[in-house]
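Lest this sound abstract, we let one protein speak, letters for residues, whole numbers for local backbone shapes, and leave readers to judge:
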Amino acid sequence: MAQPCFAAESTGDVPVDRAMKEQLRKEIMGDAVPLKVDEEYVIGYRDILFVSIYGEGSMSVGVSGGKADSASLGGTTATAGSVIRGRGTGSEVRMDGRVSLKHIGDVYVVGMTLTQLADYLKKLYSSIYESPSVTTTLIQSNSRQYTIMGQILKPGLYHLDYPLTIVKAVAQAGGFSEWANSEVTLIRQGSAYRGKGDEAKGRTFDFDYDDFLKGKDLQKNLQVQPADVIIVH
């Protein structure tokens, strides 16, 4: 399964600002289409990052290419604790939240977006290079995961590589066991890095699969978020 890949340049090196991009996108798509924009990726533990400077090459240290662990590719086989898949070339965000980079050593990156990290590294590398153009790339997402358990054929920890609803998560885990009823509970524990107020405290959502099949309460088929726990009753 293809891994998600995001990249960002330091904002000082991008001549087109966000307002111009949004205005032109609105002109192209028109008012009839909702202009939904997903939030930027937030770096987490065990993610694999690649950092480069234009004209200087890679600044990443610590991870070399390797074969993927077939037991944990994209959650196709759910195995408790299968947090890491095959590593790409780059720097791994360690359990202390840091990556190792050439010339500047260890840098704390957890909780930053790729754009914020690029801006941060541009300032750090400015002490070494003149006006460095920094690009940060997410090679592999290992931090975005959810758990599904209970009366499901393949319970375990799954990687969240693309937008996924409760129904799709159940299907990906093999579907209901023979003892399952139609009720599913989603426990949302709150954002690990950005949670504020009620969102940080967590919430519980109930979903009835039988009602979904009848076309009722379709809005309860929520999109799964990192750290969610799905319990099939």
About this structure: DSSP finds five helices and 13 strands in the chain. The longest helix spans residues 18-29.
